[in-house]
Predict the structure of Transcriptional regulator.
Amino acid sequence: MYPDAAAAAQAFAPARLTMARELAGWRKRDLAEAIDRTAAAVSQYELGQSRPSAGTVARCAEALGVPPSFFTVGRPQLHLDTAQAHFRSLRATTAVQRQQALAHVELLWEIVEQLDRVIELPAVDVGIPMGIPHGDPATTARTVRKAWSVYAGPTAHLVRNLEARGIVTTRIPMLDSDTIDAFSSALHGRPVIALTYKGNPMRQRFSVAHELGHLLLHPEPEPGSPRHEREANLFAAEFLMPADEIRDQLPSPADIAALKELADAYGVSTVALAYRGKDLGVYSESTLRRVMAALTRLGWRTDEPVNSGYPGEQPELLRLAIDLAAANGLTLPALAERLHIGLPRLRMLIGLTDARPKLRLIHGAG
């Protein structure tokens, strides 16, 4: 009755069920309700204390949106926990949200691992050694800018530079969270910066620079650490808005239109630029409060307009790697089959949209 599920039940991998459940953003009791089992039974499946029947495997696959073969052994699997990633706040996110985000990165690692077998991805080299703690955040930011030959002005093409230097940058789909801008992790030597779809493009650029700061300054993550978060912010601020040049360009008085113009030029939000002015001693605390109040009234604290509809920097490494792998025999459907996930999920995970034209039928034509 369930031939695929029967085979999957025989080769059942408990950790795969956990991964699929976390990808869906479900708790154990959510899955238990969906498959008409108890939460205790789901726990036993995931701990390897009991093996689900073919019927249960089939119901799990249907509920979680994966083929039954996803639950089988025989494929390398990475396990990440919260302590291995840089999350900004543990209080602002639930454990389920963090696990869902990490599960997507675990699956992303499997994609990268498969691609690495067929093509050579860029070596990890951001200009200074990774994996060791660097010192002062501002000094580290200036060192990286110099290594990238950015001697003055805005840091352009931030995401493209990171990808060319071996850091996988991606957007996490289906993550229902207003509390996660981005997070990062070093995956066995291949760092990943994962973005959500939250915030405007300028805010996301700061998030990317913030995560780069974590990767360089904090090889041992301390999720939610105020000191780590402060240092990553200092790195990002200096990397995107160098003190020696931005200090003299900040408008005085702090006119919103002038701030917006300068912020757009440097690819940062007006909020971030105003805080930079305060940190550099150009603006007083009262001036910052006045500017923030004005930006709040404009709605720019959460949804600042972007000139010319600029879509922001989009990750391309995985898409280009997929194209190159396909030219060398590993097509997208073949990759989905190797990973035992559906093609739509794979396309969504790597940021590919369905470019096929949609057929529309007109009722009553003729």
Notes: Residues 95-116 form the longest helix (22 residues). Strands lie at 168-171, 182-187, 190-195. The two ends are 45 Å apart (CA to CA). Residues 84-309 form one domain.
